[in-house]
Amino acid sequence: MTIGIDVRNELLMILDANDIVRLKNYPYNDQGLVNDEIRERAWPILLGINRFLDSYLNELYKQNVIDWMQLDPYTFHKDADQVQKDVDRSFNTLYNTSSCYHDKGKSVEDLKKRLFKLIMLVLKAIPQSNYYQGYHDVALMALLHFSDDCSSFKFLYMLTLKYLRDHMMSGIHPTIVQLNLIPDIIKQIDFQFYLTVQRVNPIYALSSIISLFTHEIENYQDVSIIWDSIFLNDDPQLPIYLYAALLIYYKEDIIMDLTEICDSSGEINFDFDVDIVHSVLSKFIKKNLSINSIDSKHEVYKIIQLSFNLRKSVPMSSLKSFKHIYKNSFLKCTSGSLTVFQSLADEYHRYEMKQLRKKKHGALIKRNKNNMISLLKISAGVGILGIILHVTFKQPTRFGIESNFAKAYINLYQSIREYI
Amino acid sequence: MSQQSLPNKPLRSVEYKIVLLGESSVGKSSILERLQNNTFNEDKSSTIGAAFISKKIPINENKDLINLQIWDTAGQERFHNLTPLYYRNANCAIIVFDLINLDSFKKAEYWIDQLNNYIEEQLIGIEIILVGNKCDLINEGEECSYINIINEFISNHKEIKRYLQTSAKENINISKLFQDIIDNIDDEMFHPIEEENSKNLIDLKFKKNSYNSTSCQC
User: Fold this and answer.
1) Three-state DSSP class for B170?
2) Pick the residue with more confidence: A142 or B199?
3) Between the CA of residue A41 and those of A35, A45, A47, B139, what are the distances in Å?
4) Which of B78, B191, B206 has its CB closest to that of A130?
5) Quick check: B39 contacting A, CB < 8 Å?
6) Quick one: pLDDT at residue A396?
7) Residue spans of chain B under pLDDT 70
8) So where are chain A's domains?
9) Which CATH code fits A173-332?
């Protein structure tokens, strides 16, 4: 514990001296930033909130609060309804395990109102931002870590721009292309294991990535330490490496689970397996890093170390799937400005347009294909009719109707030609 | 549906896949929690992406074993592009809406349209069951405020096999919902369990099948 106190004192000294360079270069240790008191001061600095940005954000907050008081939530932002639904069911394990030192004694109902307002204010402050399920858990961390709502706002605003903007577009594609990096990283490290994970679409990682682990890791302290590692490294790529590290760290457990489930299920059919793989992969974090885990802090520290190693040995830029990452993604462009957010929104819009054109083109091809098929059918019909009539004409005249037949044949032929 | 102590080993089994679809916060995950643990949690957190549960149910005096594999999906619209991943192999889709929220019923209509398109394209059969949840919130002796809309919709959509009003909170009709599904599983879907083959089946290298991991529906 003495180490903890030393680290704490040293960090407090650095913060008192406002020594930003030293804070940013502070060597990572198993305590992270030790406690919430230090986090409350260090996190905003590590996110780049300097004196100028701070006063700008104070103003922005004040203005938005005025709007908030005057408008009803549904006029304030289009996603109010979804936000409300998620806020109403936000206060479970993460909140229950929080030390929450400045919120002791406050009612959950009051916290729900503040969380709702916090999310709405940030959404409003970032034009073209879209709320997603999972963001509410991120926002809850912001709410619980700061003693006043304005500080939570400033922190969440910067966090959103810098670390979450890809997930806030009007569609999910910029997020999905990020997830594809995960199996690619595993491929470089453990090919055998890759063969298992590549069987399924990496959607299993969605919840962890978009919620910055808050939706999957149940213990508030564990999430805080993970966030320390991300912010101290000032690295928006780290969450992807952290996820890959979690997979590798818990590989044995994952394989054991797969073996167990598949063994007891009787006959194997391969489609079934795909679902089981998906299911095991989307549960392994909650299972292994639950609130009941003994010494989860130690495991989290080892996972963070592993993620640093992965980042070193498998640079993202070397991966095939990195090419598909948006130019203005936070994985490629670390600036957390509104301008980059807008550029990403434009980039996504272009992608959407392209998809729409492809879809229209696809529909056109399909229609042409159908036309071709009916054309072929008609041609075949005409051919057969021709043969029948030809045979008929070759017969000696018995009923004296050949001239009528001939007329009908020509009429039919012409009308078919016109139709085609 | 409770598992009793059963002496014999089942002779036949079936994997039956179900997907739950519907607007956010209508109670999809709560219905599954009721099925799985017979509990209810007022503060159940939202489902992101999707969740999966499986439940083994012995029937016919343990001669047959049903393995229900259920995908629970996220309700928020932005995740809808992912949903075909979960209903692509489904035998049954449970579309859930909230009896006191008309908008959630509109979403149910959307899902039925989506499924119909999918069924038409893929030429497969998915049994569609419509569930109006939160019936405990309707006062006793009263009906859902938009019952006429529901009835009209059902009479216009013959593909809806069954309609049930449930409450995951008060445990109303949840067992019935799944019992009906179990009772209606086609006998032809069962296959014999072969003793020798049931061991050492897992090959972690996994044969690669036609499912392409990189293809995404969005």
Assistant:
1) coil
2) A142
3) 11, 7, 11, 51
4) B78
5) no
6) 52
7) 1-8, 195-218
8) 3-168, 173-332, 356-419
9) 1.10.472.80
